[in-house]
């Protein structure tokens, strides 16, 4: 039976013993010899590198070209923010998974896995790896590496205190079993029809980023006697857990981009770490396991460099001056579009449309698990959140900050999605300060001499909002307007500017009271990336991290109220559904429960986005989907090439 994964999950005919050979996109009966990049010729000739046919798997993944067969060589120049922007590295060169979405986002197909089978009841998934896969240092990549992740990282509470929910169903974590060197089984206690779709997103990288042959030296189980000496060499690590986490990262946090020794399956290998003051660099992985239809080993481009800049304005200047070949994050908005449009000729670039935008570009996230008991009580009062929502003049924000691009909306699927619900999108978005005042008078009727409301302790009720200037979405400007609207109804908001690195530290420690961020779940990823619809996982969206921990493992975190448990149960039904029809029905019920909770306060439906790409670069997907954990352009970057005359 043919493997067919739709955007909702596995279709009605998908379950059973399905096996996929990826047809023209990833397998080919080779009649010609493999070829390699010229930059590797000298290493092969000197014996420092095996011939290309020995570096590739027996059945390499064959990438479908957008424009055609490419040319080797060149350096892709792009850019990155100086603090907390490591995800930009991930989106550019790190999205190799067991299964992946096709570039047009129509289905999920095997990737590192050559074959995938699923049981009729959607509880058991079996993956057969491509024979001969290798890490970037030439060591074999086998099921033992996946088992190292499962047995020694995922199942070790010291390294994984919170289980990632994509590997948990009904409170029970996955059981992973080695069948043989190339075959591994993932088994769940209850049906999980969304598993392969979840695995095709960025968080699905977890089973395949832990090279056992390298990382075992830092693990107490394998090197207890040697750990003390290693700790003496690393003064920053207090124990073996800290040492291990400094070598690799569960969620592609900065540690992953600091360790130059860490083997990878990505098309590029880090040569200058993110910690460097002014740049990050990567060079082609000579053991990369993909080829083009003529047998040329990918990637085509030799190197990737990121200029580390601390201001989007500097990115803008470099792009228009022709000093960058590719830019997406931080300057891809209406604010800079006219300048970038005018600079196309001098900068030698063009615009590429970006599809699959998130659920909301600017969302207020009150920490529902905040430690302060007074703020915890008030934040968890739904009427308070409704009142704050009515206090905001969304259309003014959109007109002034986003130049009219966008629409007032809560966090919700977009209008052209099958899950769109007008009530969910528009509820409490009317600018109505009179109603907001009436509601707040019932919650905090007393005010101080300046007109700001007092909490039950008699002190001014102040919300400290953390604001990082990220994604080019003008959050500082938006929060200044929100601050004024809130003051008009007696709510004191204090803006605390920060960078993403500091915010990362705060939300992982549950130290933030509130912050503004964008929200995923607007289009194709609505079924799987529900971080803004419920407290789901620790990955950028933190409005109730303790409840999220409890959902992944009820022995941890903080047990949520019944209304939140009901939302979790509703999403469990979504994950369990096998057919598209059942999944659509369950998802609508889940979203209705989520909307009724109003966990977050959305401001604007997303504005159109774009990328900027050098005119000489080919094989770029037009209308590329980029959102949340769908880390693009990484899945197709290996086929980009410079089309330049000799």
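Q: What amino acid sequence fits the structure above?
A:
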């Amino acid at each position: 039976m043919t493997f067919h994964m739709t955007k909702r999950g596995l279709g009605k005919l998908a379950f059973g013993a399905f096996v996929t050979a990826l047809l023209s996109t990833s397998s080919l009966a080779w009649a010609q010899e493999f070829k390699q990049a010229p930059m590797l010729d000298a290493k092969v000739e000197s014996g420092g590198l095996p011939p290309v046919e020995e570096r590739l798997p027996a059945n390499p993944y064959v990438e479908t070209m957008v424009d055609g067969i490419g040319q080797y060589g060149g350096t892709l120049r792009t850019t990155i923010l100086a603090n907390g922007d490591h995800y930009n590295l991930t989106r550019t060169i790190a999205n190799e998974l067991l299964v992946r979405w096709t570039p047009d986002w129509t289905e999920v197909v095997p990737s590192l896995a050559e074959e995938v089978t699923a049981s009729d009841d959607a509880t058991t998934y079996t993956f057969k790896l491509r024979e001969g896969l290798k890490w970037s240092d030439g060591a074999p990549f086998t099921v033992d590496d996946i088992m190292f992740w499962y047995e020694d990282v995922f199942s070790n509470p010291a390294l994984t205190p919170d289980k990632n929910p994509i590997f948990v169903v009904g409170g029970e974590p996955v059981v992973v079993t080695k069948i043989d060197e190339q075959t591994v089984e993932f088994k769940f206690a209850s049906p999980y029809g969304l598993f392969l779709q979840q695995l095709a997103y960025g968080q699905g990288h977890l089973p395949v980023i832990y090279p056992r042959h390298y990382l075992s030296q830092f693990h107490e189980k394998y090197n207890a006697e040697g750990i003390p000496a290693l700790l003496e060499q690393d003064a920053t690590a207090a124990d073996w857990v800290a040492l291990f986490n400094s070598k690799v990262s569960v969620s592609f946090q900065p540690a992953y981009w600091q360790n130059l020794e860490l083997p990878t399956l990505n098309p590029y290998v880090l040569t200058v770490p993110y910690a460097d003051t002014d740049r990050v660099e990567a060079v082609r992985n000579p053991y990369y396991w993909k080829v083009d239809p003529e047998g040329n080993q990918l990637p085509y481009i030799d190197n990737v460099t990121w200029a580390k800049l601390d201001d989007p304005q500097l990115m803008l200047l470099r792009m228009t001056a022709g000093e960058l070949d590719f830019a997406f994050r931080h300057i891809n908005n209406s604010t800079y579009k006219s300048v970038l449009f005018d600079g196309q000729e001098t900068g030698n670039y063009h615009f590429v449309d970006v599809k699959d935008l998130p659920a909301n570009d600017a969302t207020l996230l009150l920490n529902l698990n905040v430690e302060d008991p007074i703020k915890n009580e008030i934040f968890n009062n739904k009427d308070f959140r409704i009142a704050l929502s009515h206090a905001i003049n969304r259309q003014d924000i959109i007109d002034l900050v986003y130049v009219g691009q966008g629409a007032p909306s809560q966090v919700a699927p977009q209008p052209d999605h099958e899950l769109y619900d007008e009530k969910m999108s528009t509820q409490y978005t009317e600018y109505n300060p009179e109603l907001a005042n009436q509601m707040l008078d019932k919650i905090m009727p007393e005010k101080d001499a300046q007109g700001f409301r007092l909490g039950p302790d008699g002190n001014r009720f102040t919300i400290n909002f953390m604001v990082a200037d990220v994604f080019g979405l003008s959050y500082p400007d938006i929060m200044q307007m929100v601050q004024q609207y809130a003051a008009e109804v007696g709510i004191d908001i204090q803006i605390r500017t920060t960078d993403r690195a500091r915010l990362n530290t705060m939300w992982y420690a549950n130290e933030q009271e509130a912050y503004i961020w964008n929200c995923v779940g607007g289009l194709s990823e609505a079924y799987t990336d529900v971080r803004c619809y419920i407290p789901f996982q620790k990955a950028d969206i933190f409005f109730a991290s303790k409840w999220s921990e409890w959902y992944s493992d009820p022995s941890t975190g903080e047990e949520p109220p019944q209304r939140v448990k009901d939302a979790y149960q509703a999403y469990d039904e979504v994950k369990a559904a096998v057919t598209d029809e059942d999944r659509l029905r369950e998802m609508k019920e889940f979203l209705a429960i989520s909307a009724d909770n109003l966990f977050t306060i959305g401001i604007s439906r997303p504005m159109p986005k774009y990328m900027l790409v050098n005119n000489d670069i080919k094989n770029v997907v037009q209308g590329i989907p980029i959102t949340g954990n769908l880390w693009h352009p990484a899945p197709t970057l290996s086929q980009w090439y410079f089309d330049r005359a000799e």
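Q: And what stands out in the fold?
A: The longest helix spans residues 580-597.
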